[in-house]
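Entry 14. Ran structure prediction on the chain below.
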Amino acid sequence: TSLLETDSQLVLPTLVLQHTPLVAQAVFFGAVLSAVMSCSSATLLAPSVAFSENVVRGFFPAMGDHQFLRVMRISIVCFALIVLGFALHSSASIFKMVENAYKVTLAGAFVPLFFGAFWKRASAQGALAAIGGGLGAWILVELLIGEASPVPPQLIGLAVSMLGMVAGSLLPLRTIDAGRYPIGSDEGLYADESPAHTVELAAFAIACFPVSNAEWRLFIAAGGYDDERWWQGDAAQRWRRGEGTADGPKQQLRANRHWLGERPQRIAELLREGRVHSQQAEWWEDLVRMPDAEFEDLLAEWYPAGRQTQPEFWDDPAYNDASQPVVGVCWHEARAYCAWLSAQTGQLWRLPSEAEWEAAARGREGRRYAWGDEFDASRCNSFESHVRGTTPIGVFPDGDTPEGVVDLCGNVWEWTSSAYESYPYAPDARREGADSDARRVVRGGSWGGDRVNARCASRFGFIPGLRNDFLGLRLVCVSPILKR
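Output, structure tokens:
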């Protein structure tokens, strides 16, 4: 009875010492020693390895095996000192210490582990929010309310951790850390993708989703096509006034017809390779055989000149659902939307450079597709998916990047800020200057493009005035600015 009142941990060892033979005592204390060593191992090794692998390596991705082993050894010593200091200065029993350890796990580690394994939208951003929110809420309730809390503090921490995971993972932006990223390809599929090289990038935040019709509708309602403040540069102002709005689509179709007409068997090759369907092949064959004068008359009918006040396919029910990505916007329209959104939010929004776009899609490991190295038609809306049009944003969750960026491969080509120049990439005025009629790089492939176009390294250069049913945009946010 006295032991129960003074130190309940000694009850069982005392009973064993006083009432069992020596052999039983040896077995009992051997088991206790084994349990203590096992707990010590779990207490020291698990957090040390997790800290070294998931935190330190994130800041030093090029760290070799020997360096990693050294970091892990140092981490074990540091954690051992922390645990020792806590044990020496705590009046809690061993049972209470173990109970508190499980509270930490429940409030800070359970949700990231569970959601990471079973929820496809879980992201590193959500995990950080879950850990910080869960531990913070648990500690706050323990300090302010303690045992008087009607709900155990660790369960409050668990609930906040879940909210943090969901909110963090569903935020519309994903941060891409500063550092060196691989771009380009030496596969030999297209000459403009080589040479493969790395680029140094500052940190930026990229939108999880391409801009939707619902978002673009706000730009139209706010008078975005009428307010010249958002149309930056002479070329953009001319386009807004209706000067040469039909030139871009006409030039692109002329270029495509010329390329196919140079070697007419190309159409049959594309059909045989499954890169166009039979109706597309017949359509192109008709255009190639058509006399030039008749072709020009057709262009004038399809693309009348004049001022534009909405995207090209805004009234087409195949493309205008609120949840679909906006299409039929040219490069000038995309930049005007960025300028307008920046003024509304007080943050600097712009188109990504092609290097930023590829870094977000490939990551530091240089994935071939947003999700990995092997193509899978069930992961994106490409020609192989047979959808033959845009899909609502996010209906291919298996195609997300590990960071949670959606639809980077397929659905719509996305405008970038970069002029279409040969590699290696350099962020100079010639490539990133805005006020020019240079072709602009588009990335990501589309519903009409095949698996080759859907690769992260694939790049094409389109005329800035082109508006087509496979052209959309995605934004990056780089820093706060003052509201105008």
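Strands lie at 173-176, 179-183, 197-201, 204-207, 347-350, 413-419, 440-443, 459-462, 471-472, 476-480. Will compare against last week's run tomorrow.
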